[in-house]
Amino acid sequence: MSTFDQILPITHEILAAHHSKIAQLDWLIVNRDLNGRVRFIVPEPIKKDEARRGEVEAVYQMLAEQLGPHCYPPEAGILYEANSEFARQGTTHYVLGEFDRVWFVDRLATESNWACITPETRGATRVVFFSIKGGVGRSTALAASAWSLAQSGKRVLVLDLDLESPGLSSALLPPERQPKYGITDWLVEDLVGNAEVVLGNMVATSNLSHDGEIHVVPAHGIEHGEYIAKLGRVWMPKLKEDGTREKWSARLERLLQSLEARICPDIILIDSRSGIDEIASACIADIGANLILLFALEGEQTWNGYRMLFEQWLRAGVTQKVRERLQVVGAVVPDFNSVDYLVGLREHSYEVFSDTLYDNIEPAAPDTVGPTKPGDPKTWRVGTLVEGWNFDEADERGPHHPWAVNWHRSFAGLRSLQGRLAVIDAQEVQAVFGSLIDGISCAVEARQTL
User: Fold this and answer.
1) To bridge 96 with a disulfide, which of 102, 105, 208, 427 should be the other Cys (CB 3.0-4.6 Å)?
2) CA 374 to CA 238: how far, in whole Å?
3) pLDDT per residue as tens digits for the range 50-60
4) Cα dist from 342 to 295, 296, 331, 345, 351, whole Å
5) How far apart are the C-alpha atoms of 370 and 241, rounded to whole Å?
6) Of all helices (H) and strands (E), which one includes residue 241?
7) What phi and psi values does residue 341 have, to the nearest 5 degrees?
8) Is the torsion defined by CA of 373, 376, 381, 386 positive or negative?
9) Contact 115, 318 (CB under 8 A)
10) Is residue 406 within 8 Å of 333, Cβ to Cβ?
11) CA 139 – CA 271 distance, rounded (Å)
12) What is the chain's pLDDT, residue by residue, as a tens digit (450 residues)?
């Protein structure tokens, strides 16, 4: 009996065995619904063409026999549509194998997905702080990065999009500066066309900045109200007056654009939800991130998680759209035996990148790569390799090569990170977060010179 994981390979095997028949179709959609059951969607004219309809039905019959409960019965297994784009709208979808007109479509519980990667934004640099698991010091690193960037004169916008585990705002704002509303309020009010009411009261300025500014948008306001009830609605698509649906990540993008227009930041730092579910994908795939920081602890849980994510991108054929924006961050690197720890982290990171995202070629010779000055746009992620996109394991320019965030007792178990940042100096921040902050700064400078 087949299982869910066998749906794709069995489907590909059966279609490949009947390649000549499938190639005659203008297009074919293999549709997997919310319950994991498969059916075909084919062009409407096939329904009236008895011979071609019989061929499609025969192929589907074989598929149904192989997939068993993961297929609809043959009499209900084929749908007819006039337009393939309409049938794929709002779904995770990708071309299946070598078939350039066969689409595999996944219907998911949310309308966000990892396979649809939006182009990089052309506005302020958007940096996403992401991790497979929580508890890796991600929010602390973001707060320290915001502090340092502001000290250098940057206008920084910080968003707490870890909505199910909010708290970043408390690291940058004292209680008396917390705004009235937050992101959850805006997303809920937007569903009923009332978002403008909260927009002007959901941003607060941190007291930690000196030469620059830190503008903070929390997950919720000073009074959280019915937060759980609101949280259950933020992921909802918005039904517009013309009957179309706007998925929640598109609504989030509208919020970002509104905030960017109001604040005019130099850089936007976004604290993402942890995990690899479809809701977490919005921050990585749907909002035009320019730099995606992948926080990692050395261990199987970390690398198994990132491997699953990278393999999903590989299957969907979108690796080239996202890989150049990625960067691994070595989270809370221990102060004991740190060199060996980072070597192990780099080795496992390289293994995952090499198996999934890197092109299967040898890296270009050093003398053909060009300048290697840190932050040079010619050497930062794009256009540096002659034959493809690949890096040696020891190449510090590779996204697999971790930017280290060092463990330090002064940041461990703090009750008030805001209080700690209020009295810290630049030297202390550099000692703990220097590699991360320098990398972010170089990325911002590189984009500004393009």
Assistant:
1) 102
2) 44
3) 999 999 999 99
4) 13, 11, 10, 5, 14
5) 54
6) none
7) -60, -45
8) negative
9) yes
10) yes
11) 7
12) 678 878 999 999 999 999 999 988 999 999 998 888 999 999 999 999 999 999 999 999 999 999 999 999 999 999 999 998 888 876 778 888 788 899 999 877 666 677 788 899 988 999 999 999 888 889 889 988 999 999 899 999 999 999 888 878 778 888 888 999 999 999 999 998 898 989 999 999 988 777 889 999 999 999 888 888 888 888 888 888 887 888 888 899 999 999 999 999 999 999 998 888 777 788 888 889 999 999 999 889 999 999 999 998 998 889 999 999 999 999 988 888 889 999 999 999 999 999 999 998 654 555 444 444 444 433 344 444 446 899 999 999 999 999 999 876 655 544 445 555 655 677 878 888 989 999 999 888 887 776
What's the pLDDT tens digit per position in 130-150? 999 888 889 889 988 999 999
**Rounded-to-integer distance, Cα 405 and Cα 333, Å:** 6
Is the Cα torsion angle 280, 253, 285, 214 positive or negative in sign?
A: negative
Residue 149, strand partner residues: none
Coil vs helix vs strand at 18: coil
Length of the chain: 450
Cα–Cα nearest to 430, from 84, 23, 214, 144: 144
CA distance 306 to 247: 25
Q: Closest Cα partner for 124 from 269, 327, 272?
A: 269
- Cα separation, 382 vs 261, whole angstroms: 28
Beta-carbon count within 10 A of 75 CB: 7
| Residue pointed to by tokens 């500066």 | 177
Q: Residue 85: how many CA atoms within 13 Å on its side-chain side?
A: 0
Q: Would you state the structure tokens that stand for residue 398, as one six-digit string? A: 């590779």
Q: How far apart are CA 404 and CA 139, in angstroms?
A: 15
Measured CA to CA, the distance from residue 103 to residue 27 in angstroms comes to 8
Using an 8 Å Cβ cutoff, are 310 and 318 in contact?
A: no
Here the tokens at position 224 are 């959280």
C-alpha–C-alpha distance, residues 62 and 214, integer Å: 60
Which domains, ranges and CATH numbers included, belong to the chain?
A: 4-106 (no CATH), 125-357+399-449 (3.40.50.300)
Residue type, 102: V
| 18 neighbors 54 (Cβ within 8 angstroms) | no
Helix (H, G, I), strand (E, B) or coil at 431: helix
